[in-house]
Structure formats: C-alpha cells, structure tokens
Amino acid sequence: MVHVWQFSNGRRGGHGPDFRNELLRIGISEGSMTVLPGTPAMRAIRSAESTHPEAAALFRSLIGRTDAGQRAVEEAIFREYLLARSRRNRP
Hints:
91 residues; 2 strands; globular
C-alpha cells in the first residue's frame, strides 16, 4: 500500500528512502515485513477485520509479497482509489 501512497503523492514507485520511511511511519517492519503492534497499520487491519474481513485479508496477503501478482493488485487498488476520489469531487 505504500506504493499507492507514493503514486497518489506524485512520487515514483520503488523501495527508496521515502518508501522505507513511510513503512516505518505506519508501523511495518521492512526487514521482516510484519505489522507492529499499536501502529496505524495494525489499527487499520483490526478495524478492517471487523467491518471488511475480505479487505483485511487482502491487505495481509500483500505484506511481504514480492511476486509479479503483487503489482497487479496494487495497481487495481490504486485505480479504485482514483475512481473513488473522482466520485467524491464531482458536483
């Protein structure tokens, strides 16, 4: 999801310093790709688990994934984000 953050803020994708800093800010350990307790990422997962279990399962499945399918999922999520944002901005 950090890639979605990068793209939505006009940044290039990749695993550079902004990627690593954002991972730490939201509470994901880059080395082990685990969600740290008491962090924004963990709160988002817990909230999603109770209201949208399918979304929470998708989020957990993306953490630490490095195969080619991950990019397709991230791009689909980003397209949905852009579509939802454009709907909110319509008069």
